[in-house]
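INFO batch 0412 | record 1 of 1 | parsing
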Amino acid sequence: MSLVAIQQLELDQVAGGLSKEKRSLREIQEEERERQQEVDFLAWWAAEEERVRVETGSASMGRGTKSSKRPKRQGPRPMVNHPDPEQEANFLAWWVAEEERVRLESEVTSIEETDLSKTSKMQRSRKKQDHPADEQGQASPKRGTRSPRKKS
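INFO prediction complete | emitting tokens
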């Protein structure tokens, strides 16, 4: 990055900092509304995760039998403030991308482990080629052992 580009970037940041202070009430309210929608969405998401966790937990415990510990709900189901569809779509897109990233990392790790095992096999194969006596069934001397002395 050139010196001129850095200076221009600094000037833009300074100019951006000054204009940030001069926001209109409408812009501030819009930002607050967006933040509130995000908070609502995260609360909804946490409630959904908890609901699914409870349902899967109870489903795996009884498989069709109702739990006697849980009281029967009376009346209509409470209303949940559902998130903005665009925010939900963005979150779901992020979630899918994150799962794909984790899958690819695991695949890369698996490939690296496979390559590592192939490399060690190749090294063992090279050692056998370097010591042909091993292949013919003749044992090569081991470390720390003495060869028997010939009697004269």
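INFO post-check: The chain has a mean pLDDT of 76.
INFO record closed
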